[in-house]
Design a protein that fits this description.
Number of domains: 1
Strand content: 5-15%
Largest sheet: 4 strands, parallel
Mean pLDDT: 85
Helix content: 40-55%
Order of helices and strands: EHEHEHEH
Radius of gyration: 19 Å
Number of helices: 4
Structural class: alpha/beta
Shape: globular
Strand order of the largest sheet: 1-2-3-4
């Protein structure tokens, strides 16, 4: 690959790796990634984590060397608000917010399918 700008890993959506294992793995991957793409960013989100794993995620970031981590992404299925997450994660200054367009499309498809079925029944 000629160029890679960033790696983003949603910590728990899906997945069931404890944050210590996942973040430790990402730290190693960041070193490998940057040996080929020195300016590549590494982002992680807390989405999909249960309350215990969210606490572990926050603790890991606040107590370990996370200089390899560019920042935290806030997305759907995060147990707390972005303001709450920013208040408890003190070592990260870079934040991104995103929504999952695929979810929006999925919901739209369901509504369109229902509408189609209703129209089809009326026409029959």
């Amino acid at each position: 690959m000629k160029r890679l700008n960033a790696l983003f890993v949603p910590a728990g959506d899906p997945g069931d790796q404890p944050p210590e294992i996942l973040l430790g793995f990402l730290a190693k991957q960041a070193l490998i990634l940057r040996s080929f793409h020195p300016t590549a960013e590494v982002w992680v989100s807390a989405q999909g984590l249960n309350s215990t794993c969210l606490d572990e995620f926050v603790h890991y970031i606040n107590t370990r060397d996370v200089s390899w981590l560019t920042g935290v992404v806030y997305g759907p299925h995060t147990r707390i608000t972005i303001d709450q997450l920013r208040a408890v994660i003190r070592k990260v200054s870079e934040w991104k917010i995103y929504s999952i367009v695929g979810y929006c499309i999925e919901v739209a498809e369901v509504h369109i399918s229902r509408l189609y079925c209703q129209i089809h029944r009326l026409a029959s």
